[in-house]
Amino acid sequence: MKKAVVIGATGTIGKAVNQQLTEKGYDVIATSRKSNPTLDIENKESIDKFFADKKDVDAVICVAGDASFGAFSNLTDEQINVGINSKLMGQINICRKALKALKPNGGIILTGGIFAHKPWPETTNIAMVNAALEGFVKALALELTEGRRILVVHPPFVKETAQAMGMDSSNCPPAIEVARAYVRGLDGKETGKAVYVDE
Ligand SMILES: NC(=O)c1ccc[n+]([C@@H]2O[C@H](COP(=O)([O-])OP(=O)(O)OC[C@H]3O[C@@H](n4cnc5c(N)ncnc54)[C@H](OP(=O)(O)O)[C@@H]3O)[C@@H](O)[C@H]2O)c1
């Protein structure tokens, strides 16, 4: 049975990824800060502890990480650091440990977001981090061995999130459709790439 770690597995997109992988027959280790086993991507000790007993993993998918909305001129140091410390460094630190647990031909998929390429006003912190993740996976793919692969998925606003934010959700895909892009990424051969769901 193939083994997958899903980080952020209780979230809007993570839940759908967990469901898709489980339906495909993966043994899923679902984690987040409040789950058992617990994992906080912003805390290196927590990452070390989580991965200490993990080996022969076929897939690690991270669908967790925060960044700040807000007009650039008003962003505080703390708000800018949210994106850097959580969504960017959190996922990079996951990769450092996940690679040691990853089987040959295994895959890591990180999560960015559509603002990497189609920003809205007040998304500088998010756009910066999402674009950085794309550069990171492109470069890291060149160093991976034995068929190991890495991708970043850039989800659009999903229907559930748009509805929760009171936005027009008519053009937004449901989380399950976005989750299918993660699974296709695992099944495919591509590496070092950004995966868009709305293209
Ligand atoms: N939803 C969208 O429309 C959308 C669009 C583009 C990009 N994205 C990106 O996709 C990712 C997931 O979004 P979402 O809407 O599914 O989020 P969500 O519903 O808020 O869920 C976040 C998930 O991540 C976990 N989590 C949060 N911080 C964590 C941390 N420091 N360490 C480990 N787990 C953590 C949460 O569980 P705990 O609270 O238990 O930790 C939860 O399982 C985010 O990076 C977001 O920027 C989302």
Automatic annotation (TrEMBL):
Q: Name one GO molecular function term.
A: oxidoreductase activity
Q: Which domain of life is it from?
A: Bacteria
UniProt keywords, alphabetically = Oxidoreductase
Q: Which InterPro entries does the annotation name?
A: NAD(P)-bd_dom_sf (IPR036291), SDR_DHRS6-like (IPR051122), SDR_fam (IPR002347)
Alphabetical list of Pfam families matching this protein: adh_short_C2
Record family assignment? Belongs to the short-chain dehydrogenases/reductases (SDR) family.
What's the protein called, per UniProt? Short chain dehydrogenase
Organism, by scientific name, is: Owenweeksia hongkongensis (strain DSM 17368 / CIP 108786 / JCM 12287 / NRRL B-23963 / UST20020801)
